[in-house]
């Protein structure tokens, strides 16, 4: 690490297990020598939408997976409702996870099941189904929410990337969970669809009081849905506050990211690379 | 150099521990699945995919084993004028060893490969994470039905392999080589007892269970990407194959000592 990175500010606050609905305490996660999360402390407030931003590959998905212990921390603790959950065995975690809905980055739909069966899956697992028509109604309702009613019989392989994402979202909210974790909910959607999803997230919070954590690098969406924005960089939290606070943040790294600008240094490197390309290989491309 | 070797050994021991826990979890959830009828549809579906669709290949395997044995052994026995004993030789080989082992190896390729590829793809596309995230135990939902189906159906499929092996042997010996049918069967009946058949079928439980659990484990711990899935399938087949051979050896030793406990006299006379 060079000195520039070491001097970036660290807006990490220390947390106690009862500071929020979900609390990550001094969480470190390594993969081999790759330190992805470095001593992160973060408390997620009940009933609010927290948005985690940061460049691709900075560990946003990894952070989200630790919140329902799909990954276990190398060091540190995870609390849900003031109970430690990162050391529970899988059987006990099953009960905890039933409170959550999780939207995976790539959807993670079951490709051997139809759209309707995908959405029914969590219902089948957790509810006594007395009338099949009630389940059908539920599936239709959830699909309407994401604007896909009528695709019940399709299989994931026959859907576009954006449609898959929305079916996955319908599945994540099938049981009306208390907490929803969204991994890039608007990535891969056209701007209008993306805004529909933003409105849906707001609606879920407003009507059902859902607690949400959304990971994204879509700043427009972040500003719209966030009560609080947290920026992750090199495994640390470098900015933490509401939308206005982030907009006016003094740190140049934060500014570059939210404005979507390349840094001067990187720009120079890019120019050098394009001009100074001295290697020429014989290729089969006709002029 | 020594450091990396120690690291590798440590990793292997860690993996064995992980495998042990996986086996234990599968066994416990498997028992629970038997007790609860809500998982039966999952088991049925797997039985159809694993068992019923394997019948043709298993029958072909068995038939060719029987026929080949007949051709091979005939000359040697005929040279000594013992060709009427051909039935014992063929049928005992098929029922005790070749039927169970070859059927299991066939299943390790046909069923084990498919299990690893299916679960491995689910792993790398985060479908297994998704099951977990919805508060369902993926071992209960995915592994237990598959292992149970293999455990229950491998012995049944071995019976099919045995049957076809016996028919194949009979076809070559009696129809093609014109050995007296009465002699053929009476020597067979004298030489092969129920114990031999039972041994072969009991082996099937262990082969099926081992093959299924190794394949599922490899799928669950598959590395990223298409290459990861391919590697997992290769590993699963090689390890299943070796496990089948090792288990076979171990069980032959155990069955032999059991036999001499139950029937000490016969074993002395024979
Ligand atoms: N299962 C894994 N094994 C090894 N490394 C991983 C694994 N999952 C994520 N990583 C690493 O963690 C880092 C962050 O990944 P991720 O959280 O997916 O980034 P993003 O912020 O784009 O969601 C990457 O460098 C990736 O290589
Ligand atoms: Mg990600």
Question: Care to describe what's here?
Answer:
The complex is a heterodimer of chains A (287) and B (270). In chain A, the strands form two sheets. In chain A, strands 6-7-8-3-9-10 form a six-stranded mixed beta sheet, sandwiched between helices. Chain A has a four-stranded antiparallel beta sheet with strand order 2-1-4-5, covered by helices on one side. Chain A contains eleven helices and ten strands. Chain A has 287 residues and is an alpha/beta fold. The longest helix of chain A has 18 residues, at 191-208. Chain B has 270 residues and is mostly helical. Chain B has one domain. In chain B, 88% of the residues lie in helices and 0% in strands. Chain B has ten helices and no strands. In chain B, helix 3 packs parallel to helix 6 (138-176). Chain B is elongated and about 70 Å long. The relative contact order of chain B is 0.14. The mean pLDDT of chain B is 88. Classes of the chains: A alpha/beta (287), B mainly alpha (270). Chain A binds chain B through residues 65, 68, 70, 90-91, 93-98, 100, 102, 104-106, 108-111, 121-122, 125-126, and chain B through 25, 122, 125-127, 129-130, 132-137, 139. The complex binds adenosine-5'-diphosphate and magnesium ion. Magnesium ion binds at residues 60-61, 105, 183 of chain A.
């Amino acid at each position: 690490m060079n000195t520039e990175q070491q001097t970036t500010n660290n807006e990490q606050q220390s947390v106690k297990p009862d500071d929020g609905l979900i609390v990550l305490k001094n969480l470190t996660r390594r993969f081999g020598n790759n330190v992805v999360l470095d001593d992160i402390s973060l408390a997620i407030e009940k009933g609010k939408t927290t948005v985690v931003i940061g460049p691709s590959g900075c560990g946003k998905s990894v952070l989200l997976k630790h919140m329902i212990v799909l990954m276990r921390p190398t060091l540190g603790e995870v609390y849900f409702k003031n109970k430690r959950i990162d050391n529970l065995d899988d059987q006990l975690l099953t009960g905890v996870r039933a409170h959550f809905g999780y939207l995976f980055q790539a959807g993670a739909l079951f490709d051997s099941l139809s759209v309707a069966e995908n959405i029914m899956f969590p219902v089948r697992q957790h509810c006594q189904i007395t009338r099949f028509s009630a389940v059908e109604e539920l599936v239709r309702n959830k699909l309407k929410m994401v604007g896909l009613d009528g695709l019940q019989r399709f299989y994931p392989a026959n859907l576009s990337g954006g449609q898959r994402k929305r079916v996955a979202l319908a599945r994540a909210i099938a049981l009306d969970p208390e907490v929803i974790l969204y991994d890039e909910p608007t990535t891969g959607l056209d701007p209008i669809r993306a805004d529909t999803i933003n409105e849906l997230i707001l609606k879920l919070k407003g009507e059902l009081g859902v607690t949400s954590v959304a990971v994204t690098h879509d700043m427009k969406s972040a500003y719209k849905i966030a009560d609080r924005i947290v920026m992750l960089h090199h495994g640390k939290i470098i900015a933490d506050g509401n939308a206005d606070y982030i907009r006016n943040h003094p740190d140049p790294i934060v500014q570059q990211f939210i404005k979507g600008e390349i840094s001067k240094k990187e720009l120079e490197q890019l120019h050098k690379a394009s001009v100074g390309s001295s290697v020429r290989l014989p290729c089969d491309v006709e002029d | 150099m020594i450091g990396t070797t120690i690291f590798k050994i440590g990793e292997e021991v860690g993996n064995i521990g992980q495998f042990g826990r996986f086996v234990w979890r599968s066994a416990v959830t498997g028992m629970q699945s038997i007790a609860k009828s809500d998982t039966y549809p999952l088991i049925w579906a797997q039985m159809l995919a694993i068992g019923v669709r394997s019948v043709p290949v298993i029958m072909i395997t068995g038939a060719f084993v029987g026929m080949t044995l007949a051709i091979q052994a005939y000359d040697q026995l005929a040279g000594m004028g013992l060709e009427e004993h051909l039935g014992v030789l063929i049928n005992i080989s098929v029922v005790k060893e070749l039927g169970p082992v070859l059927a299991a190896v066939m299943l390790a390729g046909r069923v084990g490969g498919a299990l690893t590829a299916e679960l491995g793809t689910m792993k790398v596309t985060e479908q297994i994470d998704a099951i977990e995230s919805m508060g369902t135990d993926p071992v209960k939902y995915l592994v237990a039905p598959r292992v149970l189906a293999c455990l229950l159906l491998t012995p049944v499929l071995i019976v099919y392999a045995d049957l076809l092996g016996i028919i194949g042997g009979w076809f070559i010996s009696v129809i093609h080589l014109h050995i007296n049918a009465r002699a053929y069967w009476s020597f067979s009946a004298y030489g092969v007892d129920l114990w031999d058949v039972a041994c072969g079928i009991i082996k099937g439980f262990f082969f099926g269970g081992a093959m299924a659990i190794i394949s599922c484990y490899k799928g669950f711990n598959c590395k990223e990407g298409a290459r990861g899935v391919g590697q997992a399938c290769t590993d699963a087949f090689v390890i299943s194959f070796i496990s089948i051979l090792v288990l076979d050896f171990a069980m032959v030793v155990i069955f032999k000592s059991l036999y001499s406990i139950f029937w000490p006299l016969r074993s002395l006379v024979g």
